[in-house]
Amino acid sequence: MAILKFQHARETVIEQVQSGRRALTPEAVSLSESLERVLAEPVHADRDFPPFPRATRDGFAVRAADVGRVPASLRRIGEARAGVAFSGTVGARECVEIMTGAAVPAGADAVVMVEYTAERDEWVEVKQSVAAGQNVVPQGSESRRDNLLLSAGRRIGYAEIAMLAAVGRQTVSVYRKPRVAILPTGDEVVELAVTPGPYQIRNSNSCSLQAQVASVQAVPLPLGIAPDREDRLREMIAEGLRADLLLLSGGVSMGKFDLVEKVLADFQAEFFFDGVAIQPGRPLVFGRAQGAFFFGLPGNPLSTMVTFELFARPAIALLSGEPDAPLLFLRARLAKDLRRKPGLTAFLPALLEGNHDDPVVSPPIVSPVEWKGSGDIASLTRANCFLVVPEAAEELREGEWVSVLPR
Ligand code: AMP
Ligand code: MG
């Protein structure tokens, strides 16, 4: 069937999930529980922001026209503090003492910083001119009442929490978390509680996948280990397809006991691809059956983890209600020459080092860590990113700018 190039495979996942995802269900949560959830409703301003013309400096609220020529002597007629306005109007050659965050009183149109003034009794000498509007944020200039502030589909971070709090939201409508079934396969795979026999492998994939699913704020549903036997695999896949997304690991290569695709086909599955020109992770399978999407992730632990990051993570973001799911790559300089056989886009475990504070003077440097193939979990624990080697590249040179995907 179809082996796609990396970008094509990514676009396929995004298009299929965007167009084929089930209707999203909203639920109400308290503001404090909403962090990292996806907003299910648009949020509008309940008042003007700022709600009054706000002084941004301590000083004196004046009419700019009165201080066009300096020094100018103005009569101090009152005080405005944060939370307590001055109720009168500033007339010609008058001023009001004002603190940062206070409302600029009627009549005044600018604030002179206290540093440019001297006070004597009720008189204030202004030594520097100000333009109208200076040191004042006009009412409604950040947002007018009823304006859209946050759209549905936005992931709630700390800035969104601040915005929701600023409009007085104590509860928020967010999309229900997608449920992601996790089904490792393999006769050699045993649970953690079991002491593995000489040819058995502990089920680390289920654990890393649960961690990755939880890190995108989805609900992991570990289903236990499916043996390489059609009848049992069929039962467990049927259970997994009741979730929003099914992640299988293993059983997608060409071996006699790689049964995942065959059994999925029995569910009238639609396969969008069953291979991607990437390393690690080439035998990746993506499709849909019974309304649920599935990924057949290759069983080698690095392949499982990388293909999750490249494909399943964005798919889950979309199933969570986000409108799109870009991968954010960083740019870094390669530490030393790298040669390899072209043809696959590689994601090599790598270490990003250097002074990230000043990318011009000392850009981050990336070097691949030593790894012994896609079973080598330890190599990934020594890495903090994946170095991306473009499909056609045979050689990358020391000092060259390369893309890295942080992990
Ligand atoms: P497969 O893709 O089924 O051919 O699996 C490839 C290799 O990945 C196996 O030989 C195992 O060493 C390893 N593997 C498969 N499933 C798991 C798992 N659940 N946890 C850890 N390693 C696994
Ligand atoms: Mg297997």
Question: How would you characterize the overall build of this protein?
Answer:
With 407 residues, the chain is an alpha/beta fold. 19% of the residues lie in helices and 30% in strands. It is built from seven helices and 30 strands. The protein has helices at residues 6-20, 158-166, 204-215, 230-240, 260-265, 301-319, 377-381, and strands at residues 3-4, 26-30, 43-44, 54-55, 59-62, 72-80, 94-98, 110-113, 117-120, 123-126, 136-137, 148-150, 171-175, 179-184, 189-190, 201-202, 219-222, 245-249, 270-273, 275-276, 278-279, 285-289, 292-297, 330-334, 338-339, 345-353, 365-368, 385-389, 395-396, 401-406. A hairpin with a 2-residue loop joins strand 9 and strand 10 (123-126). Helix 1 (6-20) runs parallel beside helix 6 and helix 3 runs parallel beside helix 6. Residues 185-186, 250-251, 299 line the site of magnesium ion.
Summarize the structure.
The chain has 407 residues and is an alpha/beta fold.
